[in-house]
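Hypothesis: this fold can be encoded by more than one sequence.
Test: take the structure tokens below, design a sequence, compare later.
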């Protein structure tokens, strides 16, 4: 998606600590209830671990650790499709599913505490700043690809 694009963006909106974030719904395959992740020895703190999703082991990334936010005790899990590969993203809670024009997101205006490389743009959700996250920038340093 390019900023200023009039094509509607379908997005899943979720909370990560004090941040309201969004991802294009095409990357979110499923929203799962809290699932216990098994830590991977030697993995960075941002990698929550492995989660069993119907017999398939999926690597889960803790969005709170990546974005520098306090995390909940039982994070929800977004099951993401990254070009055919499944990955999990632990988030605080899923808030909404919405459709907005791509132009509703402005170019990268990340808050000071968030790495601007992780943000494609900012918009508004219920009067709060919403960050449209760049899923590749968020996951690639941790999971490769």
């Amino acid at each position: 998606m390019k900023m200023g694009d009039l094509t509607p963006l379908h997005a899943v909106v979720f909370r990560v600590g004090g941040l309201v974030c969004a991802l294009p719904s095409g990357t979110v395959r499923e929203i799962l209830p809290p699932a216990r992740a098994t830590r991977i020895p030697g993995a960075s703190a941002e990698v929550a671990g492995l989660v069993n999703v119907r017999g398939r082991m999926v690597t889960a990334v803790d969005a709170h650790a990546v974005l520098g936010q306090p995390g909940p005790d039982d994070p929800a899990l977004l099951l993401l499709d990254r070009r055919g590969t499944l990955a999990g993203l632990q988030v605080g809670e899923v808030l909404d599913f919405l459709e907005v024009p791509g132009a509703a997101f402005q170019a990268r205006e990340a808050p000071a505490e968030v790495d601007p490389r992780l943000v494609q743009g900012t918009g508004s959700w219920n009067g709060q700043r919403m960050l449209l996250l760049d899923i590749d920038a968020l996951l690639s340093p941790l999971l490769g690809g």
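The longest strand covers residues 8-16. The two ends are 20 Å apart (CA to CA).
Hypothesis status: open.
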